[in-house]
Hints:
Blueprint lengths: L2 E2 L2 E3 L3 E2 L13 E7 L2 E7 L2 H16 L4 E2 L6 H7 L4 H13 L4 H17 L10 H12 L11 H13 L9 H10 L11 H20 L30 H11 L13 H10 L3 H6 L5 E2 L6 E5 L1 E5 L11 E5 L9 E5 L1 H14 L19 H15 L2 H5 L8 H12 L4 H8 L3 H7 L1 H19 L4
Antiparallel strand pairs: 1-6, 2-4, 3-4, 4-5, 7-8, 8-11, 9-10
Amino acid sequence: MNLTYKVSIYALKVLKPDANGKVRPKPYGVRWATAGKQHSEWYKSKALADNRRSDLKQFVRKGEAFDITSGLPESEVKKQSARSLLKLAQEFISESWEEAAPNTRKRYVDTLAIPVAAFVGSQKGAPPARVLRRVLTTYLLPDNTRNRPLTETEQDAVGWIEANSRLVRELADKIEAGRLLRSLGRNLNGKVAAAWTTRTRRGVLHHLLGFAVDVGELDANPVTGLKSSVQRGTSEVDPRSVVNPAQGRQCLAAVTYAGTTTGQYDYLYGFFATMYYAALRPCEVNRLREADCKLPETGWGELILEKSASRANGRCTDSGELWETRSLKRQAEGAVRPVPIPPVLVAILRWHLETFGTTSDGRLFRGTISGGPINATVYTHAWGRVRELALSPEQFESPLADTPYSLRHAAVSTWLAAGLPPAEVAVRAGHTVDVLLKVYAKVLDGQREKSNQKIDAVLNGDA
């Protein structure tokens, strides 16, 4: 807006009947000027025109600025241009789309579909929840799908949400903001969402309402400091899920005979071993190339990581493909991460290269059917078979090595237990130190207890 305080309000203008004596439909005019630019509005009755002229004079007396272009008081301009939550979410996603990773785009779309669907003025004529969610997540919210053809049912759902989405400024009310926040705690099926999921959704909503502050829809982010009744949970590693070195070797050995046929999962032996001995994320293992590996015949080797291979919905990738190469997590564009690897992993990777070779682009690991990166469903299913064979019935029912990602946790825990400084462990694992200390807080507490026992043994003369 181009604002001014130079406002002149004139006397009412009354139009006479036309040449044929016909009375004009709106003969009473309110006229005023903003910084010399003339404006007028016309009304059927003198009373309506007088009321409008009086309103404009009240704005002037209050010291409110006027927009030069439209001639309206600042508050009226803001009211006319006020965004609905749907419109704000669309603008926020469009603004974030280009720089966001595919899975971040998907998280934004899936998360914001929940509050947009919940923050409506009326449920009258509402479409089925699944139809509404489908048009939000596959048409209205993604930045690259807003031109796809719609069915008649979907068109009706789009028209309904566009007409009923409430204005963002209504969220300045803490009660309304609290209700919106609580809507994040349930999934589409009505069940309570996991604490981690709810916490992630809250973060996205916080970013959205921060954007509302940036564009002038809200004076302050209403979610900041707002308490939620949802249990926050913890992002720390459960020490019960971390395997010790003997259990780790046992699980890796089981990979070679876990399948229904001999050697079915041999191609995953090096995949899991790299997670366990080098603390790589699955997406980093999937992008590991022969050129990234220093594998001497003896001694320690090294992995030089520069990219990861992330799987996301094709609607959320620039190429439309399911897999996209991305920069390393928590690393700047173009940064690399060197990871020293022990001789046992060097030997495993050399064996893998001799047995399976590489893909045309030099990658070590690939799916048996597509030749692309290995899907999470594939290696997770295989890991379930491995646990059945490698662990006792009691251990199998426990959280011990409950997911393949537990191998990465085990690697970091082993490094910490070996006495590596947290800063060095953070560099190897691709963490920041503060995140490392937060995520592995319970593991570190366990190591402190062991250290205390060693100190007691020394003090008591037992060691």
